[in-house]
Every structure is written in structure tokens, then in C-alpha cells.
Amino acid sequence: MLKGLNIALKDLKIESRAREIFISMVVFSLLILIIFSIAFSDLLSSASKTATVASGVLWICFIFAGTLGLNRTFATEVQNSCMDALKMCPIPRNSIYLSKVIFVFLLMLLVEIITIPMFSVLFNYQFTAIIWVGIVILLGSFGFVVVGCLISALVIRARAGEMLLPVLLLPLSLPVIIPAVSATSGLLRGEDIFSLMSYIRLLVVYDFVFFAVSMLVFEYVVED
Amino acid sequence: MLVVAFWAIFFYLPVMKDSAGNVLDSSFNIFYFHMPIAIVAYLAFFVVFVSSILYLRESDSKWDMVSLSAAEVGVIFAFLVLATGSIWAKAIWGWYWVWEPRLTTSLVLFLVYVGYLMLRTALDDPLKRARLSAVFGIVAFVSVPLSFLSIRIWRSAHPLMFGGSLYGQEGGGLEGSSLLLVLLLNMLAFVMSFISLTSFKYQNEKLGRELEMAKGR
């Protein structure tokens, strides 16, 4: 666990110097926002209409930006065969996976922290129940990253891996994305959190299930 | 096995049409395809799941071939579920497709396993392919219970088949023993055809690999 944190710190340090993944994730996410704000420009006058599209727009931004980040996570390790060095380290293989989950999760959170205010600005929208929305977004992105890191490690060995990642990842992470999107849109429409508990329960269950399964199978992915 | 299954399909299908046509609207006939096919698709993906676990445990290429065969047959059956479902939906609901949870998850299930087959074609090294696709097969199976449970978790326009009320809006339901018998016969026929198709594909794959080995020598 602690060793996983160490690797994640290493990744963060590299990222804080080069900033190549983070910048492109943020810019990509903002570009999607801008395209949506142009496409939905008719709706912007009414707050209730914006509320209905808000959760969809936000989640598309997060997921696309997240996919972009996931594409690069293992690519950096493969470049100078750093992966082999990591595998030689006297640490459980799981902690490599754990480190990547922490790393991408933090990146996604940063992107979300920037995207949400930008959404507010571009769509002229006042967020309600921001704490619960935040919790739902946290849970949803965690589940997405958990599946994403595993698939990212899988496809890095395949031909045209970058093409394959979204095709494999999006349907697979749907059990997390559907309740996350539904709960977010419910909250933004002003529904009570307790009426949305079934979504949140589903979200938590799938976070755990995916995390447990990925931790179990990850060592087979990197084994050579 | 193949002979038995095909005999079952060709022999039992007329029986089904006779007995069902007397009682219900003719569009209900497709139910005898739809439900067994759906069950068989789940069964196929369960086989992929189990044989993937067994492969990771034992590293025996036999299990890899089993999961490949089951996945291919499963994808075909999953497609047939969608196809028969939409034909039936057109007759009863008036649309081929509605975006509601059960249908969406079935579609996703189909796409996940299409992804599984795509992953296999993208990996060149056989050992790596076997191992990585086994990992994907295990993770992918997590989406199957979602599809199965979605009907209970979300309110859905798709009728509930087990427990609760049976399909009753046409005044039918599964109470009639002859209907149940035909349904079971069809279930049996489809399961048998699944087994035979899978074992056929398995033999095919095995022969193919032996040929590759012989060529390499």
C-alpha cells in the first residue's frame, strides 16, 4: 500500500515537472465544454433546461479526459522499459496497479475541479447540493479509474492499443457510469439525496467489486 | 451431440408453434426463441468467466480455447437476443428500440464481448493473448449480473420473468403446462445447440492450432 503510494508520488513528481498529461486532459475537457456550450446555446437562457443537460455534459468531459489520461499512464512506463524495473522491485505487483489508480484518480480530480467552475461560467449555471454532487463525482470517477487502469495495462501490449482502450473501457465501466450520471442529474434537478440512495449504493458496490477484481487479476496482466 | 441438438431444434419448433398459436397472439411465439437464447447467452458468458479463471489457475491452453469458443457463440446469441427482442418489441410496443435499462444493458453486454473478441485479434503472441483475454473475460463477466439484475434495480418496461407476476398483459402467462413444456423443450434445444456449437468451434480451434504447430515444425 505504502509502496504503491511511493510509485504514485514518483508519477506525480514527473507529471508536475513535465505536465504533459495533465495539460492535455484539462484542455481537452474544456474544449468539449465549449463545443457543448455552442451546441446547446439555445438552452442557456433557462436554468432548468441547463440542469437537465448538465450531468451528461459534465460526465462526458470527465470520461473523455479520463480516457485521454489513461492512455498515457502505462505508456510512460513502457517507453524506457521502466515497467520491467518496476516489476523487479521487491514489491507486490498490485502496488503498481494501486499507484496508477491513485495517480490517474488525482489527475481526474484536478481536471474535475477545473471543469466544474468552467461549466458554471460557460453555461451560466448555479450548482446546488454541491457536496453531494462532489461525493457522487468522486465515487463515479474512482470506479471509472479502477476499471480504466486495468484495461489500460491490458491494451498497452496490443496492437493499436490506444484505439482499443475506449472501445473496451466504455462498455465495461458502464455499471459505474450509469448510476453516477443518473445520481448527478437527479441531484442537479433538486431531488432529495435519499431518493437517489439506490444509485449511490450501486455505485459503491461496483467500486468495490471492480477494485477487488482488478487487484486480484492485475498480476496476471503484467506477468511475462 | 450436434445431431441431437439439430434434431431437437428442427423437430420441436413445429410443436411449439402449434401449441402456442392456439392460445396466444402469434407475436408471442417469438418468446420461445427470445428467452432461451437470452439464457444461453448468459450461460455462454458464464462459461467464458469460469474457463478464464481456470486458465489463469492452470495455464492450460485448453481453457483458453474453451473461452474463445464460448465467447464467439455467446456473441452470436447475444446478437440474436437483441434481434428477436426488437422484432417482438416492434409488434408489441410499436418501436424496435426504446432506451430503457434492460435493453441498454443487453446491448452493452453484446458490445463488451465484441470488445473481448477484438482484444483477442489485437494480441499476437498466443500466450499473452490467452492470459490477457482471460483477465478481460473475468472483468467483463461483472457486467453480466448487472444486465440480469437491472430489471429489478431500475423500473423497466421489460417484463419480469421469474418471481413476481409473470408475463400477464395478454392474458397468457406461463401457467399452461403445455406452454411450459414447450418453453423447456426449447430451452433444452438451445442449450444443446450452444454446447454443440461450442464444442464444434473448440474442435476447430484445436485442429487449427495443431496445424500451426505442424507448420512450425
| Assembly status | heterodimer
Low-pLDDT ranges of chain B: 14-25, 162-175
**Beta fraction of the residues of chain A?**
under 5%
Largest interface in this structure: A-B, 29 and 26 residues
- Gyration radius of chain A, in Å: 18 Å
State which percent range the strand residues of chain B make up.
Answer: under 5%
**Fraction of helical residues of chain B:** over 70%
- Cα-to-Cα separation, first versus last residue of chain B: 34 Å
Number of domains of chain B: 1
Q: Give the distance, in angstroms, between the N- and C-terminal Cα atoms of chain A.
A: 23 Å
Main β-sheet of chain B, in a few words?
none
> Sheet with the most strands of chain A?
none
Q: How many β-strand stretches of chain B?
A: 0
* H-E order of chain A: HHHHHHHHH
- Gyration radius of chain B, rounded: 19 Å
Computed structural class of chain B: mainly alpha
Care to give the gist of this entry?
The complex is a heterodimer of chains A (224) and B (217). Chain A is built from 9 helices and no strands.
How would you portray this structure in words?
Helix content of chain A is 83%, strand content 0%. Chain A is mainly α and 224 residues long. Chain A has one domain. The radius of gyration of chain A is 18 Å and the shape is globular. Chain A starts with a helix and ends with a helix. The mean pLDDT of chain A is 83. Chain B has 217 residues and is mainly alpha-helical. Chain B has one domain. Chain B is globular. The two termini of chain B are 34 Å apart. Classes of the chains: A mainly alpha (224), B mainly alpha (217). At the A-B interface, helix 6, helix 7, helix 8 and helix 9 of A face helix 4, helix 5 and helix 6 of B.
